[in-house]
Amino acid sequence: MGRQPSLWLVERGEAVMSHVIAAVSTGSQISAIGILRLSGSGCAQVAGQVFRPKSGRPLEEAPNRKLVLGALQDRQGRVLDQCMAVFTRGPHSYTGEDTVELHCHGSPAVLAAGLEALYQAGARPARRGEFTKRAFLNGQMDLTQAEAVIDLIEAETADAAANAAGQVGGALARRLEPVYSVLTDLCSHFHAVLDYPDEDIDEFRLSSYTGALAGAQETLTALLATSARGRVLRQGVRAVILGKPNVGKSSLLNALAGFQRVIVTERPGTTRDTVEETVLVGSVRLRLVDTAGIREASDQVEALGVARSVEAAQGADLALFVCDGSRPLEPEDREAMEAASHARHAICILNKQDLPCQVERSSLPFETILPVSAKAGTGLEALPPVLEALFGPGAACDGSILTNARQTDAIRRALESVRRAQEGLAAGFTPDAVLTDVEEAMEAMGELSGRTIREDITNRIFERFCVGK
Ligand code: GDP
């Protein structure tokens, strides 16, 4: 995973432009309500030229965070809509600036005309994510929270939403804060002793930070361990169905579709198109890959060649190996079993239970074997608990699960640096050699939260050690 350039990092520290921005914050479809949103100093005056409060009191004098009834007017001064406005004064707003929301009826034409009128009144179009970006630049949230806002909007299951909501609330930031703080202490202590030799500062002993580094390592390791579940939470479980022809793969697919609505996605690939179907089994989303092959394979010799089965299983979180329980196992079954073993988890679906069973369970090398009849639709009720045990979020989805690839990458790098620092410490390296690793860890963590390392160390020196009197 390469480093991703971050707009936030590039612009942080520069003067925050607070020009009034405006956008439609709701969807583009006709809906009951549509919201026009403004942010920036003077936004109430801008909105006040487009929205006329019924009370006759100017919008900028409206009580804070209270809905005010009024009329929305277009550029010609025609009344377009009866709507409500809410004025939230900074810094206690989402962006940290003054913000106004106009709650209109959700006609795209009304919203477009209202927006145009706001531009005429001096607002400029908001860029993608600009409200949240301002919230970050104004210190209302750190990067992990800002990123979680997008995860929350895009959440496809309640668990994913709950985890993202926890992160918007700062769950991840709070978990990372003690680690960053410990590393900052170590660096600032070292630099303070070095830079201010005459001050009365405790002697710097690297060994006194052994426990702190171990604690940092433990937290980062635990966080990183959540990333596999996090990916599943965000994207669903990548699953493949494997088995020789006629064992009931396509019947299983149909039976699975009975759990809930099937979403079929065609993905034009570089070498071949793949078709993915998504089914919700209990609370787990299964993204079944390569289903086109299965559906079309009835009169083909093989649905997936052995090599392709292995390839598909290698990239999968789950392989569902299907065999026909009414017939003895054949070499082709064993090939499919072998392919299934390449997935992160594999489950055996022992199909055709409505017929006399000819397969010894002991000949199936799987921890989980589910006897089913895809045709009769029996036995599949055992699948949801199995999947939830394997892929469910486990502990409550409270924001402690790492779902974001950028964050995962930064934490991985931070952990590597902390480990190197620990090794250096154990091997008796000089403090400045160890410090390099600690600073690298801080840099990676600074990328996570979006703050800059030098500024923090410097600030901490003056705050904690009261130097510079
Ligand atoms: P695939 O080639 O692995 O996709 O297998 P299909 O799903 O097309 O099924 C092959 C044949 O087995 C069909 O005639 C199905 O009706 C039959 N079949 C599938 N599942 C069952 C089952 O649970 N019991 C019985 N008796 N027949 C089944």
Notable features of this structure?
single chain, about 475 residues, alpha/beta, seven-stranded mixed β-sheet, 17 helices, 14 strands, about 20% strand, disordered N terminus, disordered C terminus, binds guanosine-5'-diphosphate
What does this structure look like?
The protein has 469 residues and is an alpha/beta fold. 43% of the residues lie in helices and 18% in strands. It contains 17 helices and 14 strands. It has helices at 7-11, 43-48, 108-120, 130-137, 143-154, 158-168, 171-195, 210-225, 227-235, 249-257, 291-296, 306-314, 331-340, 383-391, 405-426, 431-449, 453-465, and strands spanning 21-24, 31-39, 51-53, 67-73, 79-88, 99-106, 124-125, 237-242, 263-267, 274-281, 284-288, 318-324, 345-351, 369-371. Strands 3-4-5-6-2-1-7 form a seven-stranded mixed β-sheet. A seven-stranded mixed β-sheet has the order 9-10-11-8-12-13-14, sandwiched between helices. Helix 13 links the parallel strand 12 and strand 13 (345-351). Helix 7 packs antiparallel against helix 8, helix 12 (306-314) packs parallel to helix 13 (331-340) and helix 15 runs antiparallel to helix 16 (431-449). The protein is flat. The model is unreliable at 1-16, 267-272, 297-302 and 453-469 (pLDDT under 50). Bound molecules: guanosine-5'-diphosphate (GDP). The site of guanosine-5'-diphosphate has 18 residues, from helix 10.
